[in-house]
Amino acid sequence: MTVRLTAAQATIAFLKSQYTERDGKQQRLFEGCLGIFGHGNVAGLGQALEQDPGLRYYLFRNEQAMVHAATAFAKTSFRLRALVCTSSIGPGATNMITGAATATVNRLPVLLLPGDIFARRNVAPVLQQLESPSSQDISVNDCFKPVSRYWDRIQRPEQLLTSLPEAMRVLTSPAETGAVTIAFPQDVQAEAFDFPEKFFEKKVWIIPRNRCDQNLLQRAAEWIRAAKKPLIIAGGGVLYSQASEALAQFARATGIPVCETQAGKGSLPFDHAQQLGAVGVTGTPGANIVAREADLILGIGTRYSDFTSASKTAFQNPSVRFINVNVAELDAYKHAALPLTGDARLTITELQQALGNFAVEESYRAQSHDFRARWENEVDRIYGIHQAPPITQGEVIGIVNNFTRPSDIVVCAAGSLPGDLHKLWRTRQPGSYHMEYGFSCMGYEIAGALGAKMADPTREVYVLVGDGSYLMLAQEIVTSLQEGFKINIVLLDNHGFSSIGGLSRACGNEGMGTNYRYRRSDKDDGKYDGDVLPVDFAVNAASLGAWSARARTADELRAALTAAREQRRTSVVVIETSYDQRVPGYESWWDVPIAEVSERDTVKAARRDYEEARKKERFFF
Known about the structure:
CATH superfamily of the largest domain: Thiamin diphosphate (ThDP)-binding fold, Pyr/PP domains
Radius of gyration: 25 Å
Strand content: 15-25%
Structural class: alpha/beta
Distance between the termini: 58 Å
Number of domains: 3
CATH class of the largest domain: Alpha Beta
Oligomer: single chain
Number of strands: 23
Number of helices: 24
Helix content: 25-40%
Largest sheet: 6 strands, parallel
CATH topology of the largest domain: Rossmann fold
């Protein structure tokens, strides 16, 4: 039996019948389609979505932002659900490329359906078409290839019969997932074909909990038993596997301390006895000291970014060995590790069984407890810094952290906030700390918060965003109002790119191009050192329909947060923060190359320090 549908209609009918299942629990894979219509998709996918409301459509304001929202939705759903994004051809499509890269770098599933140029070519070049003198089989959608885990172009309607199932395979694969792009020529979208009815039957994609090799598991147990100073690094894979409870039991039984990457933060609650907190460039002193001295690293679900490894300087014990638990071979083999390629929760459980009654020496356990206690005192100190306005970023984080409930979600992505949040935020439940730090994409924050709220409307979502990121992609405030998804935005205004300004000065420079100030009319040196630009963010947010308030002091911020909680629509609380008052780094370093030749003494000094620090970078064989 067949049913005659356009290619666009068939795509929507197929997508709404896809489900995932893990541990016996089923859910729809796609909860909706985000989009902006144009001449590349309005007559095809637009018509199909209007005709078949089974896949709910959400109107967004910016194509990059809608992919960020879909990425955050998938992250909040622990990769078990996803959203579809569709755009017109040309700039509508290329606007999604940054979002696609963000999803793929973070290993999060999103399905992109950009409109494309005519497959039949006879009317080319069409509006917004990129012409190539070397080939007629190219469009701007080819730019998605390096940032997609799967890419295809549909030249005939029947190609959907093989392309869409492959797309689902990648989207639901714990090891291969990321952005999936199916370029959809606008003429093909409208063409009809007799599709088999079976193609549209309910399909359940099982998310497996694969076992690692059992011989390697036994060897890993032997390595752990032989270690004197083992350390666990918990990455995002712990959360995506929903392995937090298994990790908590494993750490409690063995006494092995645990530290967390940005993606893995919240794997353990901040007050777990073995929790050392953040590790790496934005890490705590205890975590980084233990990492430096560790003779065994058990990495669980981490890809060892340079912020985690401190640019390969974090692990200095000459005898250190690595065991990596990861669903992806690419990550399981990093640092010449013993690879336990498999599901995190299942592997942790089986590894604990293989270890029997193993536990670290009491002196090592006591050291971890001492580091924990010292760090909690340091967090209290930073939270308690009270200074005249503008107040510090650390104090703002403390106020918001103490105000929120354990189930509330905090969202951030770029600037100096991620480093401070990684160190300071006291996470109490898995999934309540939502940081996009694989791509650290400015502009992700508000759209990401909207996606997180869409994934779980029962939870309050708080956005901490700097003025720089806010100015890049604030318009999805309108979308949140339109769809009735309230988010709470705390905008920290430090009049510029504080993070990069600080990095510039650390490199011996003066922070050129990082202040939101006028140029001095009496000077022609290219610097922005005039008065601060008079941007009124509270008025801007109100003009978009949000409830807004300004705060200057800690007490005013608390009052504004309380008032915002009572609102039924998206709120924006603006507070000015100090540009220069910073949370320090602890026991770590990041490789940012310093100019080898300079006339500045400060740059020369920074270069000497850089060359000395690079000597600690290691290769692992």
